[in-house]
Amino acid sequence: MSQREGLRADSSHFTLDGVPIQILGGSIHYFRVPRACWRDRLLKLKACGLNTLATYVPWNLHEPVKGMYRFEDQLDLEEYISLAAALDLWVILRPGPYICAELDLGGLPSWLLRDKNMKLRTTYPGFTAAVNSYFDKLIPIVTPLQFSRGGPIIAVQVENEYGSYAKDEHYLTFVKEALMSRGVTELLLTSDNRDGLKCGGVEGVLQTINLQKLSYGAIQYLADMQPQKPLLVMEYWCGWFDVWGEPHHIFSAQDMIAAVKELMDRGISFNLYMFHGGSSFGFTSGAVDFGSYKPQVNSYDYDAPLTESGDYTTKYHLLRDLLGSYQNKELPQLPAVQGRKVYEPVVFSQHMSFWESLRCTDMPFKSNDPVNMENLSVNHNSGQSYGYTLYETSIYRGGALHSRNHVRDKALVFIDKHLIGILDYRTQETAVPHSERERILGLLVENCGRVNFGPALNEQRKGLVGDITLNHTPLKKFTMYSLDMTPNFINRLQSLKWKSTDEKPLYPAFFRGSMAVDGQPRDTFVKLPGWSKGVVFVNGQNLGRHWSVGPQNTLYLPASWLKSGDNQVIVFEEHRAGGKMHFAENPQHCKTIDVSRQPFCTLS
């Protein structure tokens, strides 16, 4: 069989195997969608009239511990791309190494920050060596899936929005050559917002643009930069992400359809970001910082055409009607909607103090000075990526405890296991009551999400990143406990003695109950009215954070994570338990805000 000719960009339109095409793409991230739902979501993408799937590849999930790789189960990238091929979809692969994607540290593994001199997204030798090792594992998985070799991958992106970072003029050339030298032969492209186009290019690589509004001549600017080249909006933002404590973002369906229609009429290729957002399960969501630190929620619904749980929306139906009107073939039949169920509330009959759970952690680490999460000697010396770290030291007096802005990101402050205050970016001092005896000062520090966009990537170490002072004197002789709350840790909790909830809990605390599922499990949404802040685990799976500040008031619980019969539910709660876990058929949010009417930052 003769080799197929891949995607070409050497005229005003794309050609694939010599035939002119228009890329009609949609982003769905395999790592944000339960594997059992992959086929359903891709069928819905195809039924909407799209022909291309775009996905990022998260380095931090595939190499969570240095030198230990995961490409199985939920992270089986080869199977995901092969499924797209089976459904006759093309694929644009976006392997990074940096991807942003509103993930913790933009998808870069936190163990990179163990190097105090690390310069992420540059040709700093420590970074390029790590990228080369990762690409040695990743790229051989995807090269057989390229279009010219019979697979669906028609294009591969070189890094992501580097023009907005642009700290090393040789870096994009390094990434390009790292891909090509390992056998990537399909069309290479970069992706930037308008402001980044000027610095985001590299020789021989097609530039594409990311935007939400077609005004301000952004597309014409790209056309002028690359005359006689096809135009691709690599990310057309049809929604936006949310941060804790602010409104839920929506984007007008009519505005989206008007923009897509204009792109279709002008023959411009595009990729909807997101077509289906899914969920940033566990602790994987990141943060933004444009003058103030704002952690992002677990839901990545994005107000996309398909909801977080895969439901059709008004956007979906309008988009399908529009795209169908441009195609001279009937679109596939719509896949059936998967039903959901509102289960009976879970009553929590048992609890365990956080302090008891320390028996299930690894051996504590001792140091004269506090050590940040990434440099703790845990996880095969790759440090701690996510969760909480407890720092304890003895004090002999009271006074003013000052963080010196060294808490990343939020610390509950305890004296002899009793909460006395909170330290974070805004509150950097709390009063310690006076006493004549020795006491244990504890700081339970949470990584609320590493910033994933902007110049501050190299400063994203978490935990205590410097001295904490009491009356202007740095505290010393710390004992540190790593609480990354992995499934193994949650399983170890089962062996400890739990108390009845008839007894008053000592917070923070874990609460345990049973969720009854009669018959075939169905998707549902978890809600915790009356609770304050913490983390939810079902059958050992970390659904993510719950936090009463909103805007996310529910957590998506996929049916594939449930079983018929009893399902174990554990909730970690920092301050106040509500007694029960309730369920809802649909997600619930606080106040919403329409981003099409608001100025906002350009990233993703």
What is the fold's blueprint, element by element?
Layout: E1 7-8, E2 14-16, E3 19-21, E4 24-28, H1 38-47, E5 52-56, H2 59-62, H3 77-86, E6 90-94, H4 125-142, E7 153-157, H5 171-180, E8 187-192, H6 194-197, E9 206-211, H7 218-225, E10 232-237, E11 248-250, H8 253-265, E12 269-276, E13 287-289, E14 293-295, H9 314-326, E15 346-353, H10 354-357, E16 365-367, E17 388-395, E18 399-402, E19 407-408, E20 410-415, E21 418-424, E22 429-432, E23 439-446, E24 463-464, E25 469-470, E26 473-474, E27 478-483, H11 487-493, E28 499-500, E29 509-517, E30 524-527, E31 533-538, E32 541-547, E33 555-557, E34 565-573, E35 580-584, E36 592-594
Parallel strand pairs: 4-5, 4-12, 5-6, 6-7, 7-8, 8-9, 9-10, 10-12, 11-36
Antiparallel strand pairs: 1-2, 2-3, 13-14, 15-28, 15-29, 15-35, 16-27, 17-23, 17-27, 18-22, 18-25, 19-24, 20-21, 20-23, 25-26, 29-34, 30-33, 30-35, 31-32, 31-34
Please characterize this protein's 3D structure:
By secondary structure, this protein is of the alpha+beta class. It folds into 3 domains: 7-326, TIM Barrel, CATH 3.20.20; 346-352 and 487-584, Sandwich (Jelly Rolls), CATH 2.60.120.260; 369-476, Galactose-binding domain-like (Jelly Rolls). The protein is built from 11 helices and 36 strands. The strands form 8 sheets. Strands 15, 28, 29, 30, 31, 32, 33, 34 and 35 form a 9-stranded antiparallel β-sheet that branches. Helix 8 (253-265) runs parallel beside helix 9. The radius of gyration is 25 Å and the shape is globular. The two termini are 40 Å apart. The model is unreliable at 600-604 (pLDDT under 50).
